């Protein structure tokens, strides 16, 4: 019995607990020694990026919506301003037409040219005054009409005659008399009345007579500006706001209240209004931020302007800004929450890893973040942990095998990349002058090799044999189990030619073959690929070696097949032509019905192929394939098909490809030649009866078409004369007689069973015309088709 001191056990347990606490403390201390974690820094950077993106996107969206709203409001305002301009211009045109008609009035022209004698011309002047009063009374917009005579220095108005010196409109008339213009509109002028009221008018002046170089007088028509403004200009007040009319120089012609005239526009805005046909801008008008839309008239250069308080125009813009800020803030909050969740989710396993490493290794201060801590810990483990280094070496071995496997299978890589990988994995293979051997093994006896451990040991022994032989002959590398093959990559000495490399590769292959046979008892077939200068082309040599192995059935198991042997030369070609002549002779004997001679020629060909090492394997395969094609051609020439000879699912070429040796292929040909011979004999015994059955069936099926001896013979791929002779021998009738008989049968059936006309029956049965049908009936039945139908009806009536 073993006794344990309780005090010693308790001390050991306390020591273990103390070490565990120290490790946890060291882990926490290692975390505290780190600076801000990478996740916190990443979270802060993403937050700043999101804030910047939110501000920029919000600014862009708000600016875009602000511009769109301004354009929309401006478009609407300018559309209504255009309507207002049209109304105003229509009124102005009416005034101009009125002025023109008055200026052309003979009485007014006479009044301008005469001296006014109040006694003699009173009636005349009074009539002019009355006409002015009538015009004023008939118009809602005309305030007054004046006629000034420069000769008399007086003014006739609808209220009487007055001297120019005391006339209230003198300051406008005198400058106009001096100007060269025949007519002109003038700014708004206020008229003060005795009771203290004022009224604004727009004045239109026209010289009398018209287009005179020296003006004799002036016709003045004053419009009621306030009435025009309220009735015409500001019709759309609710939609447009306040509307004003400016002349070409920017002076106000019409506005709702002259005492509340807006301040002058800035120079840039004024220039824009002069140079542009229409547009908008924002301006401070009497202390109010105002959205101004303007439209310039082509008629007289006047500018139609409307004013809308900006706060009313951009209510929607502010709403959009609010929505934008709300959505941006919501997205920002969601983004921050997602970042916190995601970073927390991925930071927890990193944190646990840091704690685990800190508990098992001495933590050091000064690490910037978790990843630098982990990297530093792995660096220490690399130098301290022998077990880790050993596992890493095992991993390198696996990676080395993967690299060689990819190199053989053709993974895309440049020569420089391949050389760099060879150096990294320390593979004993030079990057130039290479060739590949592919080793295929098969059991020579009946031994059971199904045990996995035995197979593994066998592969190891084969690899060891290959490595030993390769090392003895100059160097290379061995790769096991590449697509069920063992692969040897050989290096050759500098300056080696393709011929010398091929000879050296065959020597090494024979050494490997004999070594494996001696030590394992296995039979080995080896394929040799081509010689290449660069190691990056090793996959080409590997696939050439695989192609060489495919011809094992020609060379036999346990042979060495070089890809170079597959290449043709002139001697091989001449031999091939001789073999093909023998194959053609075999087919001729088979067609003539001589089975024994056919088989004898076949046997002779195979004996020569088996002992002819000079002929390439590729040519041997072509010769045998030529014989297969010849047998199939014979069957088709006799109007047969593969199913008639080889069964319902022959897969003839597939069966031929499955044969793995010359002896197997020879036995397979014996069977194929025998089947073809029996088919030929069957065809001869029946004298083409089967063929003619198919031809007559075709004629019956297509008797309604335009058939001829030539067309049918071409359909069955035969000469027309030979076909006619064969048809007569087989059926006892000529082609035309048989076709006419079939068509008459169809016509008789239609006459007895249908009510079709003779013309329709002639077309349906293939005779084409009614006349051809009648001739055929008279020749064969001695009556017309109509008589034939009547006789048939009478017979049916008599038979009840």
UniProtKB/TrEMBL annotation:
UniProt keywords, alphabetically: Cell membrane, DNA-binding, Membrane, Transcription, Transcription regulation, Transmembrane, Transmembrane helix
Record membrane topology: Multi-pass membrane protein
Sequence ranges of Basic residues compositional bias: 10-24
Protein's UniProt keywords contain Aminoacyl-tRNA synthetase: no
InterPro entries: CdaR_GGDEF (IPR041522), dCache_1 (IPR033479), Homeodomain-like_sf (IPR009057), HTH_AraC (IPR018060), HTH_AraC-typ_CS (IPR018062)
An MF annotation (GO) of this entry: DNA-binding transcription factor activity
Domain HTH araC/xylS-type positions: 693-791
GO cellular component, one term: plasma membrane
Transmembrane parts of this sequence: 42-65, 319-342
Keyword Transport recorded: no
Taxonomy, superkingdom: Bacteria
Ranges where the record places region Disordered: 1-29
Subcellular localization: Cell membrane
Pfam families, A to Z: dCache_1, GGDEF_2, HTH_18
Gene3D superfamilies: Homeodomain-like (1.10.10.60), PAS domain (3.30.450.20)
UniProt xrefs under SMART domains: HTH_ARAC
PANTHER family: ARAC-FAMILY TRANSCRIPTIONAL REGULATOR (PTHR43280), HTH-TYPE TRANSCRIPTIONAL REGULATOR EXSA (PTHR43280:SF2)
Annotated protein name in UniProt: AraC family transcriptional regulator
């Amino acid at each position: 019995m073993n006794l344990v001191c309780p005090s010693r056990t308790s001390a050991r347990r306390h020591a273990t607990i103390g070490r565990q606490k120290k490790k946890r403390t060291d882990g926490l201390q290692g975390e505290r020694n780190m600076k801000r974690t990478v996740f916190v820094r990443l979270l802060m950077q993403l937050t700043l990026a999101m804030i910047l993106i939110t501000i920029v996107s919000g600014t862009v969206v708000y600016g875009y919506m602000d511009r769109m709203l301004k354009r929309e409001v401006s478009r609407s305002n300018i559309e209504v301003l255009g309507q207002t301009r049209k109304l105003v211009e229509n009124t102005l045109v009416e005034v101009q037409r009125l002025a023109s008609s008055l200026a052309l009035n003979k009485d007014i022209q006479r009044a301008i040219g005469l001296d006014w004698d109040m006694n003699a011309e009173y009636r005349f002047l009074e009539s002019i005054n009355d006409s002015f009063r009538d015009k004023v009374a008939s118009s809602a917009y005309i305030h007054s009409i004046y006629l000034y005579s420069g000769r008399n220095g007086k003014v006739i108005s609808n209220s009487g005659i007055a001297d120019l010196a005391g006339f209230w409109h003198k300051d406008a008339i005198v400058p106009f008399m001096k100007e060269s213009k025949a007519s002109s509109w003038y700014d708004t002028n206020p008229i003060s009345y005795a009771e203290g009221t004022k009224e604004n008018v727009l004045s239109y002046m026209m010289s009398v007579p018209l287009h005179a170089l020296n003006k004799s007088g002036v016709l003045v028509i004053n419009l009621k500006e306030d009435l025009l403004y309220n009735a015409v200009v500001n019709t759309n007040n609710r939609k447009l706001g306040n509307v004003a009319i400016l002349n070409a120089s920017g002076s106000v012609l019409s506005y709702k209240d002259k005492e509340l005239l807006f301040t002058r526009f800035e120079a840039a805005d004024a220039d824009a209004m002069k140079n542009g046909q229409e547009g908008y801008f924002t301006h401070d008008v009497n202390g109010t931020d105002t959205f101004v839309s303007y439209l310039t008239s082509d008629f007289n250069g006047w500018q139609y302007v409307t004013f809308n308080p900006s706060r009313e125009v951009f209510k929607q813009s502010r709403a959009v800004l609010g929505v934008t800020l709300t959505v941006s803030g919501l997205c920002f909050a969601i983004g921050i929450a997602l970042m916190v969740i995601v970073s927390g989710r991925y930071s927890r396993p990193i944190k646990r890893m840091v704690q685990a490493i800190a508990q098992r290794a001495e933590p050091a201060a000064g690490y910037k973040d978790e990843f630098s801590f982990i990297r530093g810990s792995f660096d220490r483990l690399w130098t301290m942990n022998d077990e880790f280094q050993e596992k890493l070496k095992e991993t390198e071995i696996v990676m080395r095998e993967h690299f060689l496997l990819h190199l053989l299978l053709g993974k895309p890589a440049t020569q420089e990349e391949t050389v760099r990988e060879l150096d990294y994995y320390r593979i004993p293979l030079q990057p130039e002058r290479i060739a590949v051997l592919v080793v295929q093994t098969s059991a020579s006896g009946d031994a059971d090799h199904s045990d996995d451990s035995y197979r593994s040991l066998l592969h190891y022994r084969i690899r060891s044999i290959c490595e030993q032989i390769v090392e003895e002959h100059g160097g290379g590398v061995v790769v096991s189990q590449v697509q069920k093959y063992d692969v040897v990559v050989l290096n050759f000495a500098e300056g080696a030619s393709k011929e010398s490399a091929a000879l050296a590769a065959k020597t090494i292959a024979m050494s490997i073959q004999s070594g494996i046979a001696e030590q394992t008892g296995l039979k080995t077939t080896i394929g040799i690929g081509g010689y290449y200068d660069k190691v990056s082309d090793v996959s080409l040599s590997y696939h050439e070696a695989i192609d060489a192995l495919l011809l094992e059935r020609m060379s036999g198991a346990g042979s060495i097949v070089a890809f170079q042997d597959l290449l043709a030369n002139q001697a091989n070609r001449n031999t091939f032509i001789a073999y093909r002549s023998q194959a053609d002779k075999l087919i001729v004997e088979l067609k003539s019905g001589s089975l024994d001679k056919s088989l004898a020629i076949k046997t002779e060909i195979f004996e020569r192929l088996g002992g002819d090492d000079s002929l390439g394997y590729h040519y041997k395969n072509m010769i045998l394939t030529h014989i297969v094609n010849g047998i199939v051609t014979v069957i088709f020439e006799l109007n047969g098909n593969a199913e008639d000879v080889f069964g319902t699912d022959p897969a003839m070429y597939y069966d031929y490809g499955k044969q793995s040796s010359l002896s197997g292929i020879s036995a397979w040909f014996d069977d194929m030649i025998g089947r073809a011979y029996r088919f030929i004999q069957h065809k001869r015994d029946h004298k083409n009866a089967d063929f003619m059955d198919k031809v007559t069936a075709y004629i019956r099926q297509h008797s309604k078409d335009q058939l001829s001896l030539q067309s049918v013979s071409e359909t069955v791929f035969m000469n027309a004369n030979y076909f006619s002779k064969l048809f007569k021998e087989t059926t006892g009738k000529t082609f035309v007689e048989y076709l006419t008989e079939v068509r008459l049968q169809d016509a008789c059936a239609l006459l007895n069973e249908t009510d079709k006309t003779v013309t329709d029956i002639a077309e349906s049965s293939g005779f084409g015309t009614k006349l051809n049908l009648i001739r055929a009936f008279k020749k064969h039945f001695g009556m017309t088709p109509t008589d034939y139908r009547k006789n048939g009806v009478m017979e049916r009536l008599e038979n009840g």
